[in-house]
Amino acid sequence: MQDQSPFNPLPPVILVLALAMVAAEAVLGLAQSGFLGGPQGIGWRLEAVERFAFAPRVVELVFERGVLAPEVLMRFVSYIFVHGSLGHAAFGIVILLAMGKFAGEVLDGLGLTVVVGMSTVTGALVFGVAVQQNVPLYGSYPAAYGLIGAYTALVFVALGRAGERQLAAFRLIGVLVAIQLVFAALFGADLSWIADLAGFATGFVLTPLLAPGGWAALMRRIRAR
Asked: How confident is the model at residue 20 (pLDDT cuts 50, 70, 90)?
């Protein structure tokens, strides 16, 4: 019998997403440092934000004016592949990998895709509706926070089954929110937290339904009432 590795492999969908983000940041970082694109490469990051970031105006174009052009609709998703700096990208990708690995121990590839995809879209949509200024939204954080929501939901259910205090499941998101508040106090408020929390809520709500037996368990609870 072959020895099994003590480390579970990363779910393919998470690995592909992370590699795409790493590749995008590598190109933008090298260009910003002058190694790619010549003098014009320095402005590639700003151009990427202008072309791929999300903004509240996208909501206006799609839902009020009926503009359904692919280059407009793609912004509901494309913004997670653009970051403001290497540090901004690295922290988001690390969260994505860590939480994706944990959630992947329960959710299958389709479930993970739904959580990440819906968290990304919902984060953008809530940001677009809630924010009045036409400021850009970019970075992998709404998707990563969706996976934090998935992690929290799984811990929440596990604690409930063990008869333990379920509020402990929210410890991680509480720490992250506290860190964001500190950064906001030091460097000014960043409205992207609205999209992050929307992504978290999406992952938290969807995960119990997407977990094996989740929908059937929900139906049983509804019938029992």
From this structure: very high
3-state secondary structure of 8: coil
Residue 149, H or E segment: helix 141-161
Nearest CA to 146 out of 99, 183, 178 is that of 99
Whether residue 218 has pLDDT greater than 60: no
Task: For residue 11, give the amino acid letter.
Answer: P
> 42 Cβ partners below 8 Å, 6+ apart?
31, 32, 34
Q: What's the CA gap between 118 and 199, in Å, rounded? A: 8
Alpha carbons 9 and 18: distance in angstroms, whole number:
14
pLDDT tens-digit readout, 39-96: 889 999 999 999 999 999 999 999 999 999 999 999 999 999 999 999 999 999 999 9
3-state secondary structure string across 52-89: HCECHHHHHHHHHCCCCCHHHHCHHHHHHHCCCCHHHH
Which 3 state secondary structure label does DSSP give 137? strand
The residue type at 151:
Y
Band of the pLDDT at 133, cuts 50, 70, 90? very high
**Cα(200)–Cα(218) distance, integer angstroms:** 21
Nearest CA to 29 among 39, 41, 17?
Answer: 41
Q: Which residues of 158-175 are buried (b: 16+ CB within 10 A; e: fewer)?
A: eeeeeeeebeebeebbee
What predicted TM-score, i.e. pTM, was given to this entire model? 0.89
The alpha carbon dihedral of 40, 45, 46, 49 has a sign of positive
